[in-house]
Amino acid sequence: MSAFLAHLDTLLLWAFAGCAFVSAALMLVLRQPMRVAMALVSCMVFLGGVYGLLGLHFIAAFQVLIYVGAVMVFMVYAIMLLDPRDESAGEKYSKLLWPGIIGFALLAEALAVGYWNDLPHAPRGAAGEPFDLARFSQAFLSEYWLHFELTSVLLLAAVVAALAVIKENRRHDHG
Amino acid sequence: MDKVQMLQVLAASLFALGLTGVIIRRNVLVMLMCMELMLNGVNLSLATFAHTMGSAVGAVLVFLIFVVATAEIAIAIPIVLLLVRRKRTLDIESYSDLKG
């Protein structure tokens, strides 16, 4: 029993990783966009669990808050708004189904073989080090302040672009 | 197979699954969600390396990718809304007149 408890975090990590993979694979198979969105949400939540088990708790929190809380809620809202208009309940897959599957097999094989052969094994000392929010925040706001400011410029550009898109839409309606 | 290798293979397969979804699905919203899946794969890879190396760079990049994903969705959804208003469908193949 104690041996089981000692390996519980490894077991949970494998379980979360497996569930994340299965949800991601379901995204390609399910037909309705809302179900695809739910599969993506579950994949993101499982990845949040993986981050938590790795000790990156703040990334886990932001994964759930930003991705599941903001991005996916926006996406679900868009699906509810748009999906009933889709009269062409046609085929699920495009003409590129077989090239896509072959490309997936090749890419997955290349990446997996590359990781399998070339990745150095985890340095045992470094992996156990606590990676806390204080160290991350100091590095973020002292070494990487320029990138932080550049993301604010990116967000501003996104807001202006969204406004421009809406304005174009209104002009199209009235014109 | 140790933990880091397993997580990197998972990250690679999430990226590959997302890319395949972008290629093979017809629904524009599903394609957008597959793009989010690709970003999640990259995030997992960066977070695993940040954990392995014990450095802050990977975690900082993860946060920057969060911002990029949010900005991408904030722009992509209005564009899809406009396209659907004109074409009345979410099927990507009916937008083929957007080709240059």
Topology:
The complex is a heterodimer of chains A (175) and B (100).
Chain A (H helix, E strand, L loop, with lengths): L1 H5 L1 H22 L3 H22 L2 H26 L14 H22 L5 H4 L5 H11 L1 H30 L1
Helix pairs in contact in A: 2-3, 3-4
Chain B lengths: L2 H22 L3 H26 L3 H31 L13
Overview of this protein structure:
By secondary structure, chain A is mainly alpha-helical. Chain A has helices at 2-6, 8-29, 33-54, 57-82, 97-118, 124-127, 133-143, 145-174. Chain A folds into 2 domains: 1-84, NADH-ubiquinone/plastoquinone oxidoreductase chain 6, subunit NuoJ (Four Helix Bundle (Hemerythrin (Met), subunit A)); 132-175. Chain A contains 8 helices and no strands. The N and C termini of chain A lie far apart (73 Å). The relative contact order of chain A is 0.05. The mean pLDDT of chain A is 84. Chain B has 100 residues and is mainly α. Chain B has 3 helices and no strands. Chain B has helices at 3-24, 28-53, 57-87. The mean pLDDT of chain B is 89. At the A-B interface, α2, α3, α4, α5 and α7 of A face α1, α2 and α3 of B.
* Average pLDDT over all residues of chain B: 89
Oligomer: heterodimer
> Roughly what fraction of the amino acids of chain B lie in strands?
under 5%
Q: Order of helices and strands of chain B, N to C?
A: HHH
Determine the mean pLDDT of chain A.
84
- Assign the CATH class of the largest domain in chain A: Mainly Alpha
Q: Outline of chain B, from the CA principal axes?
A: elongated
Quick recap of the structure?
By secondary structure, chain A is mainly α. Chain A folds into two domains: 84 residues, Four Helix Bundle (Hemerythrin (Met), subunit A); 44 residues. Chain A contains eight helices and no strands.
What labels describe this entry?
heterodimer; A: 175 residues; mainly alpha; Four Helix Bundle (Hemerythrin (Met), subunit A); 8 helices; B: mainly alpha; Helix Hairpins
